[in-house]
């Protein structure tokens, strides 16, 4: 009888443990690194407390630490970027909780693999054992496949640990999310990256051939990805250099990690929100940074032009009436020049909008007017402001009593322009900022004249 096929076991993540632990006299074999074993693999932690950069989860007061102390490991969704240790943590959680570790990838696995894993977990449970099922890239399973986890999670057949780089709120079923706790893994900060560099030097017995600013640059080039950082260390140690490399020399030799950005995923919305709020907060430096981040990530400059044109109308408004035509002009300049020359016009627009006086009074007034229009139905304008192109319309009162404002004192008649029977509304309340200061003064003057007449 042919042996049953096991679910496919995928490659390790940062510091991931190997699928099988050697037993007996071969137990020490894994301590000897293979000649071509990657540095990241050689440096994988053997304990949860050795994982760097996730103190909020694995420190003395960390959420996962407390969970293990209570002896109640819940099903989890580990959400974080590449190279932050998602697979590592899942493996070490299984080890700490005494569970069999089974790993699947949503990229390479299907329904048959899931069923096989569930069947094996049930057999494991029958002999008193538990299973931690780790699913990498769990967001790549469709909705129906995600629903397949619900019964085995509910009845405790498996402790599910899913890893995802996507926002679980958008990528996973609400039913699955309600049965799991979401743990957010941080990108590795500068101290965490430095800890990895120190470990790499201790493992290899060689100091990195870097000046201090070169070392800072190396950490920055990793962009929070520990695996990428250690891969660069391996490249660096293979170089034959006569003197330590400074930041410029290092940048010429090694490739910086590609910026994490996906134009139709969460990072896109996070960054446009940061740009919008930086401009609203009148911080041109931060706004330029997020603008540049989006362009460097491959964002379409036309999308940014459209969003900034909206900002000019919504957030600057009448406080600076020139902002809107300037936005359109910057957009048109980009269309004429293209990249990269046209991007300077958009950068100028970023600075103008960030430093302009702000008012959302028109935005609020329009919203209030729409609500009033929906509430009042089909009221017709008052007769005195209706045109009367025919004698019949004149006879029934169209246009009767209309006062021509240019002939009125101060060019203001003060007549009513709302429907008969509808109380006068005050939708637009200009601020005292920028050009709206003058607009506010005019409206106050006209209000006094209206009251007198």
Give me a quick take on this structure.
The chain has 453 residues and is mainly alpha-helical.
Notes on the protein architecture:
It contains 21 helices and 5 strands. Helices cover 48% and strands 6% of the residues. The protein has a 5-stranded parallel β-sheet, with helices on both faces. The model is unreliable at 1-12 and 14-30 (pLDDT under 50). The protein is mainly alpha-helical and 453 residues long. Helix 11 (212-222) packs across helix 13 (247-253) and helix 16 (301-316) runs parallel beside helix 18. It has helices spanning 39-42, 55-58, 63-70, 86-97, 111-126, 143-147, 150-154, 168-171, 174-177, 190-204, 212-222, 226-237, 247-253, 266-280, 284-296, 301-316, 323-337, 341-355, 361-376, 391-395, 436-452, and strands at 76-79, 100-105, 131-136, 159-164, 181-184.
